[in-house]
Amino acid sequence: MALEFLTEGLNFKCVDADLGKICADNCQLKLDKCQEICDDPNCTSRCQGQWLDCVNACPCYSGCPDGCQNCPNSICNSPLHHLLIIDGRMSEWNKGMHWNSYTEEIDYRNFDYQVNEFDIEDSCYVMLNGEHWLIGGWFNPNGVAKVEDCKVSRQSTTLELPFHGGMFGSCAAYNGKIWTCFDGKEGRANQCMTFDGVRQEIVAHETTRGHDWADLVVYENELVTIGGCDGEGEERECHGFTEIYVEETGWYSNLGSNFPVHALSGHALVSDPRGIVIITDTENNKTIYRLDFIDLPSGEFVYRWDTLGKLRAPALNISATNLLEAVFVGYNKLERITTGPFELTSSIVYDTGLNLRLDHAPMLIVDENFCKE
């Protein structure tokens, strides 16, 4: 019944039929996951009802027959449903790799890295207010640039404090500002700075532990960091400490949220509806975990750690981003991950047979025609 409805219910003449198909496929995935944990007919019936409501709310189905026009479905909020991946190795050819989520096809588009002006290696990428920012980097730690008109455009503004590590540290868009945090150089593994495109400010509150080689993520409007390292060189000590930022009082940790398995570094953090997904690299056995936030009837919540599975492909210095209710991970391959209650599904969406080596490559969320000639 479900698969037949996916095609019979879709208005293929609708202008947003491609989005409708993606939306319905996501609903089908949720149905499959829901039914996997059912052990009685009532549960199966509830899954079917949730699936039917999900599909009907998709553009070009019965709840939104005119497509995205006046449709509240989140898939219609933005045309930014595709990826443009840029990387220092592709700069030799001035190309960016565009992945089309509608067709699942890859093409290489002209992109001017202007490497003589701005070296993006290990820079930290943030999208803020619809603009693509590249902050710091190994060879240009005070550099600030934007991706504009299919090129790296260096800005006249420079960072007051160098951000050598870039992706070895962390950056995130939070409360209308870019946060650059935890660069282990010069003893700044506990420190953050904010930047709104003009003004820079050192955050008064420092973390309890250093988080160099960690990551930042925004989850339910809170800024969270997990893992990372204190110190440098032989004195570097990594940990699994979790800290959450509160504007009035600074960083705090609940011991139940600390990483339970081993010290954590070189990982990527992304959020999903259940919690924070932690993607570890090859050195940490490519395992993917999630820190779940369990609501209690009292209004409080507890933490639960789940092991979801492993990456299919080897990864080191990984890049990751959320897109269309999935997570895309890049290193030697481009891999798509969809997380369920206690597990994940994954597939390689691009494999040339060659190693891409996307070391901390910026993964820009863009529209279908971005940099298209």
UniProtKB/TrEMBL annotation:
Protein origin, superkingdom: Eukaryota
Gene3D superfamilies: Kelch-type beta propeller
InterPro entries per UniProt: Gal_Oxase/kelch_b-propeller (IPR011043), Kelch-typ_b-propeller (IPR015915)
Protein name: Oidioi.mRNA.OKI2018_I69.PAR.g9715.t1.cds
Source organism (scientific name): Oikopleura dioica (Tunicate)
